Amino acid sequence: MSRLQLKGVGKSYGATKALRHADLDIEAGEVHVLMGSNGSGKSTLSKIVAGSVRPDTGEILLDGKPVSITGPQAARRLGIAIFYQELSLAAHRTVAENICLADLPSRGVFVDRTALEARAAKYIALFDGVTGDDFSPDAVVQDLRADQRQLVEIMKTLAGEASVLIFDEATSALDRAQVERFFEILRDLKRQGRSIIFISHRMDEIFAIGDRATVIRDGEIVGSRQIAGTTPAEIISMMVGAQEETATVADAAPARPAGPPVLSVRGLTGPGFSDIGFDVRAGEILGFGGLHGQGQSAVLRALFGANSPTAGSVELGGKPLHPKNPRATIRQGVAYVSGDRSRDGVVSGRPILENVMPIHYLRERMMLANPSALAAKALPALQALKTKFAGLGHPISSLSGGNQQKVVIARWLIDRPAVLLLDDPTKGIDLSAKADLFSLIRKLAGEGMGIVLYASEDAELLDNADRILVFNGGAIRRELTGAARTRFNLYQAAYEAA
């Protein structure tokens, strides 16, 4: 019996079609797995069902009747609950308060603490024995470990007692015992007739808990399979599609350029990653692959000094590098470019010249600046990236997103670094700007710079990286070189058991 149906559902963001005419049927009493690469449309589909995104086309039916899901509250009233990949907890509130946050029991204008604690206890008891000794109803969420916070979010989702439950990467921070307990709960919910949409990057989990799997590729649903009657290889083939190409990096180029490494990492461990080790050689573009949020960005930020590692060693040009803070790593020759311009890039409200020069200020320890001299240094770097701007005195906000990102990259080209760390640098910019950026990146590598590139778009890695290290669960699971740099191998390593 169909519990939830999507017919011709589509969603576009400008020229980008995030979801195209999606048809999906979720039955009562099943765990239905959604699979696809980064940006394939899984989360967009989930958010449409949960009411946080409004579709442009199509209709949604619940128990055979068309429904209008106008927002998250409307979804909850219809019996739909979602666990978002980005946790939505109130950090300064207690575990019990977060579990009941969507529907706090009250007496008049006051919260009924007795009823709240009794309701929360029901869901906490489901995970008895796997939460940790310091986990309690009155524990403040911000004081909990990452796995405990994720458990609170799961409990909060379960507390809605919804007939349709969506779990988007709900197991990403959990240990094996916690996952097994969660799966026991899901199986019990199946027996009750609940419908569950499940998204995971772990192939072993998909085959352990799923009944059916639907594959989404480039915003389109390409097919569904009964889990019991398929294999991981078949599902990955559906994700890849007919194209099976190696990277377009020149085949004649050696996978591991000769010469000593410019960056050596051994046993690097910190929040979100463990025991990371690799070398980057002069002239090499080393790719970080895998599904989003598997530790790639955390490693890059740790190497830059934005997040402190707890163990391991790093060498830059054969000398110890202690990434305690960005100021120290910048002066030693490490550069970092983030795709999050608003957080890590542009200085909002300031002129283009001021946005392109801060690294030069820092490295030269400048106290006073001559604008003409600075402009003479800034212009070649901006021109190398084909940056379009009216004048250096214009505000950074006058530029398009792509040109703002070019300014952020240009600031590192004035005083060339030894190593360039690229953390999904093309996020949110147009195709023309991407082409300019990667043309320059390949040119810099050709001049001997060591480059580490994390890209959430697989094609960017396959087209540009000499080697690809595939991350899963905060660890490197596989290295792809030469002819092994294929989309199939990239997906297989990304989804293999953690």
Automatic annotation (TrEMBL):
It comes from the Bacteria. Keywords: ATP-binding, Nucleotide-binding, Repeat, Sugar transport, Transport. InterPro entries: AAA+_ATPase (IPR003593), ABC_carbohydrate_import_ATPase (IPR050107), ABC_transporter-like_ATP-bd (IPR003439), ABC_transporter-like_CS (IPR017871), P-loop_NTPase (IPR027417). The keyword Transmembrane does not apply. GO terms for molecular function: ATP binding; ATP hydrolysis activity. Gene3D superfamilies: P-loop containing nucleotide triphosphate hydrolases. PANTHER family: CARBOHYDRATE TRANSPORT ATP-BINDING PROTEIN MG119-RELATED, GALACTOFURANOSE TRANSPORTER ATP-BINDING PROTEIN YTFR. Belongs to the ABC transporter superfamily. This is Monosaccharide ABC transporter ATP-binding protein (CUT2 family). It comes from Aquamicrobium defluvii.
